Amino acid sequence: MEADNLVNTERRMLKVMLTDATKVWSLSDILAACDWQDQAIAVGAGLGLTDKGLTQLSETVSTEVKLGAQGQSALSEGLLEARLWDWYKSASEPSMANLQQSFARHEAGPGIGLLKKLGVTMTDGSFTCVDEAKVSEAISARQDFLAKLPQIVSDLDDDMLNHFKSRRNFIEFVDSTTRTWTLTPEGTSIDSNLLVETTMVNEITPELLQSDAWKDAEFRRFDVTLESATPRTGRSHPMQSLIERIRHIFLEMGFSEIVEDYVQTAGWNMDALFIPQDHPAREMQDTFYLDNPKSMDLPKDLTDKWSEIHRTGGDTGSTGWGGDFSPETSQKGLLRTHTTVNTIQYLAENPNQPCRMFAVDRVFRKEAIDRTHLPEFHQIEGIIMEEGANLQMLVTTLKTFYAKMGYPEVRVRPAYFPYTEPSLEIEVKWRGKWLELGGAGIFRPEVTEPLGIEHPVLAWGMGLERLAMLVLGLDDIRQLYISDLEWLRNQPLI
Ligand code: PHE
Q: For residue 379, which atom of ligand 1 is closest to its CA?
């Protein structure tokens, strides 16, 4: 421990203590020797020295008995029973009637009670007492008791304490801490000559930096390993912060954001994407169909085009799925099962314009809730449409995104989606394991041609909650949405 780690008050206190290295220093010793008035300064300096192992603090908490307001006036004006007793002894006729003349009503009433308990009796309106010495003695014991307060509770007589406890505002109990400090061997070993008080800078201000004064200043050292209270302020939910971060990454990569409704038609959610109408994922078990709107109008030429493609493949060279196509099925209202429903509509509205678009938004599937599944979750969707767009570009874009998120190891594997060819699964390495985070591919002609889309479209859809689990180190996806305040407060800034 070096002396220059100490603040001025600690230096002064240590220097003082070193003048008598074996002494047990009380607070008042320290205040006097350091020439301090403020107890808080002494206690603070002592705390600092104790934290640094230079002094040892011992604290004893004791209860002190002090005079209350009634006790104080009893002491200055005389205890009621003492004044009554004086009256009794000097009165020529100690009768009830006389007493009531000499004392106000609020004293006479309780006063008679007090005297009776002390051994004064009343017969036919007159007071008498058999053992006067005993009464005198009891009263002066009470007066002595009050006169010697304040005292530590354990030094006081129990009967007397109980007596005054029963009289309102006579005595009060106050807890007080007595502190003493002694030097530790380490404290004793410090060279007193090094304990020089200097001007120390606690805070770096713009003024200080602008002047040259900082060059010669001595800076206070802070121990950043000490425990301290964590400031609790409002902050975004980790999911919201994560979404913001993803947004920034895509915006930085030249993408624009799509924000669209999640109530959609089966036509856009599935038919436009060449998902066959008898595909199992369309069943009620997987998709939330709506009662309101049960169905939504779609332009006939659109459903005609999808019908043609689905039944025969149209002019795309595909043979289609064959079978029947139902425009009523296309018009069914549902909660979107993927955000691809929105990128495909964007392309349909802007078929000739090369673009890079993304969405981070909510989707719905009839999943049973468990450690890794929720019926409502989010996807990170994206498309690139431009001349010459190719698989290599798709893979590089996804790798770049995950690298910016802090996951440099990414691989793709062949997969299948009805609307892309080739189709990929994206995997990210986390704690030595490959985790599947989403799907991607290049839209098939069955998807792009009916909508008049001119260039190749690279597309992907990835799970946001899965990514959040990696970022936050979770093994249960539900943790994200249970509003566990303690957990939320302790999440890192994303
Ligand atoms: N829509 C797919 C899903 O929900 C992901 C995907 C998007 C795959 C775009 C290929 C292209 O899993």
A: 4
In terms of Cβ atoms closer than 10 Å to its own Cβ (0-12, 13-18, 19+), residue 181 is buried
463 CA distance to ligand 1 middle (Å) = 10
What whole-number distance in Å separates Cα of residue 348 and Cα of residue 152?
88
Residues 391 and 486 in one domain: yes
Based on the fold, state whether residues 60 and 185 are members of the same structural domain.
yes
Query: How far, in Å, CA of 342 to CA of 105, rounded?
Result: 91
Q: Is the CB of 461 under 6 A from ligand 1?
A: yes
Cβ of residue 382 lying under 6 Å from some atom of ligand 1: no
- Whether residue 448 sits in one domain with residue 330: no
Q: Which ligand 1 atom sits nearest the alpha carbon of residue 381?
A: 7
Kindly give, in sequence order, each residue whose CB lies less than 8 Å from that of residue 206, ignoring residues fewer than 6 positions away: none
Determine if ligand 1 sits within 6 Å of the CB of residue 417. Answer: yes
Q: Splitting the chain (494 residues) into consecutive groups of 10 residues, what average pLDDT does each group show?
A: 80 96 95 95 95 94 93 93 94 89 90 91 89 94 94 93 94 92 96 87 86 82 82 89 97 97 97 94 87 97 97 95 96 97 98 97 95 95 98 97 95 97 96 94 97 97 95 93 90 86
Give yes or no for residue 79 CB within 6 A of ligand 1.
Answer: no
CATH of the domain at 482: 3.30.930.10
> Which residue is closest in CA terms to ligand 1's atom 5?
461
**Residues spanned by the domain of 277:** 263-335
- Ligand 1 contacts CB of residue 287 (under 6 A): no
Whether residues 147 and 38 fall in one domain: no
Shared-domain flag, residues 104 and 243: no
Distance 420 CA to ligand 1 centre (A): 9
Q: Is residue 245 located within the same domain as residue 196?
A: no
Nearest to 471 by CA among 382, 406, 399, 374: 406
